[in-house]
Amino acid sequence: MYISRFVTGYHDSYVFRILNDSAVSMKRSGYLEWQEYFMAICFLSAMRSKDPATQVGACIVNDDRKIVGIGYNGMPLGCSDDRLPWSKTASDTLDTKYMYVCHAEMNAIMNKNSADVKGCTIYVALFPCNECAKLIIQSGIRKVVYASDKHASKKSTIASKRLLEMAGVECCQYEPKRRQVVIDFDVIDRSGLSQLPDSPPRQSPVPGPQPEPADCADSVRRNLSALMVEQAGDQGL
Ligand SMILES: O=c1ccn([C@H]2C[C@H](O)[C@@H](COP(=O)(O)O)O2)c(=O)[nH]1
């Protein structure tokens, strides 16, 4: 019996058991739970926001746990985010972002890739304002999972809670189970993808015989057997 361990970029492991010539693979531990996954997608989307003060992301998920819409706060389509203001305050409210910016929830609903979002859950970084609450209710979304309630004392949030409650939309705050979800491209480059074959050599600009591209399956097999031999050695097998 061999027990072999694959170390991925995230330091989790796949365990392969080879018993009587049949390979049984067991799932890795430490994978993202659904709520963590959807909330992480909110925050990843928020990273696209150009708002210098508050970046908000939203992710709409249906009953089958399929993502049907994603959005973040930004200026409307075709309206230059270099020409419109990003300030919170100005002597003229026309010079503040609030007159122009589309909220993450609105964008997620507008970007939906399904016929509608009835019965869906919306994951949001920030508790939705009253305008977003109206959109949420009218679109048929039934549940809001939010990360931050930093504007709880604002009238717009109080009105939002009032509306959502009246409409019977369930709201709950996300309770993180892990402190971080890290995507470190350095780690992925150095170890996570080291199990994969090298990229094929770049095409030479000069016409002529080209080197054979690496055979993916062969390279994966070579890495796998090297790991198994190494591991078997570790275990004195
Ligand atoms: O439900 C909401 C509420 C706000 N936003 C966006 C709109 C703005 O770009 C910021 C809020 O700016 P502050 O600087 O925190 O006032 O967040 C949203 O997308 N959804």
UniProtKB/TrEMBL annotation:
Enzyme class of the recorded protein, top EC level: hydrolase
GO BP annotation list: nucleotide biosynthetic process
Pro residues bias spans: 198-212
Domain of life according to the entry: Eukaryota
InterPro entries linked: APOBEC/CMP_deaminase_Zn-bd (IPR016192), CMP_dCMP_dom (IPR002125), Cytidine_deaminase-like (IPR016193), dCMP_deaminase-rel (IPR015517), Deoxycytidylate_deaminase_dom (IPR035105)
Gene Ontology CC: cytoplasm
Region described as Disordered: spans on this chain: 192-217
Similarity annotation: Belongs to the cytidine and deoxycytidylate deaminase family.
PANTHER family (alphabetical): DEOXYCYTIDYLATE DEAMINASE, DEOXYCYTIDYLATE DEAMINASE-RELATED
The protein's name: Probable deoxycytidylate deaminase
Organism expressing this protein natively: Amphibalanus amphitrite
